[in-house]
Design goal:
Layout lengths: L1 H19 L5 H18 L9 E2 L17 H15 L1 H6 L7 E5 L6 H11 L3 E6 L10 H20 L3 E7 L1 H4 L11 H14 L8 E8 L7 H4 L4 E6 L5 H11 L11 H7 L5 H18 L6 H13 L9 H21 L4 E5 L9 E4 L10 H22 L7 H16 L15 H25 L1 H14 L1 E3 H8 L9
Parallel strand pairs: 2-5, 2-6, 3-4, 4-5
Antiparallel strand pairs: 1-3, 7-8, 7-9
Amino acid sequence: MRCIEYGLGIGTGLIFFLIWQGVNLWPLFFIAGVAGALFYFGNIRPGGKSFAVFEKPKGESTVAFEDIGGQEVAKNELIEALHFIANAEAIRELGIRPLKGLLLNGPPGTGKTLLAKAAAQFTNSAFVAASGSEFVEMYVGVGAQRVRQLFKQARSLAKKLGKPSAVVFIDEIEVLGGKRGQNSGHLEYDQTLNELLVQMDGMPENDDIRLLVIGATNRADMLDPALLRPGRFDRQVQVDLPDRSGRYHILKLHTRNKPLAVEVSLEEIATATFGFSGAHLESLVNEAAIMALRDGVNQITMDHLAGAIDKVIMGEKLDRLPGKSEKHRIAVHEAGHAIVSEVVQPGSVASVNVSARGKALGYVRQSPGEDLYLYTSDYLEARIAVALAGAVAEEIILGNRSTGASSDFQQAADLARKIVHGGMSELGIVSPDDLPKDLLHSAIVTIFQKTENRVQDILNQYASVLLKTVELLLVCENLDGQEFRRLLNGNNSEQCA
């Protein structure tokens, strides 16, 4: 400290002496100012905060594995890998090399950050987090310096909290750890990755502070192989979208502090939300509570939850008001989708709507029933039939088609391509990479023609139901699945729900 005081005194005296001698010091002041600014912005985040983010309070994670739903497989695999920190003495006696890194790989919103926080809580570790995008700057050397700073902060925080270990969490690690050589015009990326590799190699097994690096990404294919080798990221934990039981668990967690009406069935909501991530489900419950507040009621009902599903999938209702003839065409289109969907897969229609949401002027929300991970040719052909049904219904009732079916055709083409690539078409088993485009096109057209004939037969058979559904949609704008099924079974009630 005294040396710093002596240095400041000598420096100040030298500056005054040079000024007294008439030396122009403005260029020196300018260079010093630029250097100081580069140092400041390279080491300090906006707002004067430290570069790394510490889990509050005081670097301690408040999230436990019990607070995370729908990821039982990922949690069990992660807990097994964390035992080297939680049971360090037993691990050492067995001569097991501690794991240095864990990679959480999965779609956005599946709980990767929560799992990292729970890992810190499980191992009684300090928690330090940063995003991969924070490491790469236009200034050479800043990224590598921030990597060193991150590991230093983790050790310092653990010592300050009196903890024997720390978890370093790097989100979006593909930005920091992308394959080297891809950014030939910007070597800062490679230098930053090299520093991360050096830091992970330099983590001693018998250090007074044990470090565990947890990375999160949804693009593991972009990561450099040197980062994924054993000794760095030793384990890869797949964090997938939750299945039906997982979605039910997540819904229970997010509704713990919310008043639900007696008739609410979270099992039905879990079934109707296939493909939803944990973040989607949290948003769904929150939107349902907002709808209950708008309605001035003190409980969340099934109608609120069903409306929240529509909002999460499609977006908020729009003020876009189509003309009378256009609205009639929309009703015909959606009625066609609904009839064919219910015929080829009974019980699949959750609601039929002709109110605009997001980019859609109308839509049919479907409930998939059981979660499917393997698709047969019959299932894919049924989905193609539903996609084509809107345009076919327009042609039967109105005599022509519209551009409203363009996204349906794109969806149908993707499904038909799966049939061909899966070896389920008339071409038999094929190599997708070697299949000529004209042959692929011919196979897809054949599938379309066969399916379109099937759709026309179904809609002609249910022509009276099609007209009645259109009539009710123009009045009610919305039919739920039960109302539509009653109509399909011959109950010609004209009442709106």
